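Dear colleagues,

As part of the handover before I leave the project, I'm documenting each prediction I ran so the next person doesn't have to rerun anything. This entry is a single chain, and its sequence is reproduced below.
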Amino acid sequence: MLTTESIMEALREVKDPELNKSLVSLNMIRNIQIQGHDVSLDVILTIRGCPLKIKIQEDVENAIRQLGAERVTVTFGAMTDEERAALSASLRAEQHASRGNATTQGGKAPSAPGIPQTNYIAIASGKGGVGKSTVTVNLAVALARLGKKVGIIDADIYGFSVPDMMGIEQRPTVIDEVILPVERYGVKVISMGFFVEDNAPVVWRGPILGKMLRNFLHEVHWGELDYLLLDLPPGTGDIALDVHQMIPQSKEIIVTTPHATAAFVAARAGAMALSTTKHEILGVVENMSWYTDRNGDKEYVFGRGGGEKLAESLNVELLCQIPLGAPGNVLEDPEYSPSVYSSNHPTGKVYDELARKVTQAVKT
């Protein structure tokens, strides 16, 4: 039998996709009306034009139909300014409670007060164009496929590319002063690209860059994470130093190509991690290692040995070699993205193995 109580109980299992909290606990379900087998209700969204409104509607309708309803009518509204402010205050209090403790919990590295308590992995390179961001997004997605809770900070603020690589078109929801990251492939993402109109250039000096990184750590509602990956700008500039100051426990992966010069330049980023920022280097990823031609033969278009030589010079493991290629997705695919490899793609399997090595290295 359909009752207000049974409907509310069923909707306790339906969550706001951005906050990962029950619609009932967020007081988003209101004005339930029942006439025979027909149900109507109001869903009060955090903001007007919520990008995930359709998913919320589908989840609500499915949950109520499972109770025996034949027709479900959902009318959307939006929280008042006062309700949003109260929700924002609740989220900030939740963040403060989870981040204020600098002790290790659940195998995760200790965090400085005010930043998420998780395992930080910075993806670094000596120069641009070696595929550092491609490695970042695919490692993150591969970790998510292993069941890990993963986030990405696109800290390459001048050269942000993660949203485009992952096929993300929506912008983050902002509730009062709390930013909700965009989720794609099970990975939460925040990027300067979300806050720049029409791919405009970013012309900022070092102190402002550091402030933006600090905001991404402090003002974004990340929730519980196992890993937070930072896609660093190439080289050894201000952002790398800011990461050291804000996240001294961060670990690093160095990305290079097999070309000798690329590996030589990447060694500087590795040397900075070892001598200046004191970050542990998990290993080296050699990208664009070879190209497989139509006959199945490998062509080493950028030379050979750069990744291995770099790993030896840093006294770390060569974690993997990734071939030159593209995922082969098509625009018509609802899961399309320009740069993310699926788990059944040969390169996707390489990233899955890289993810396993990372989980073993940080023991989560």
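The longest helix spans residues 81-99. The CA atoms of residues 210 and 308 lie 33 Å apart.

All the best with the project,
I.
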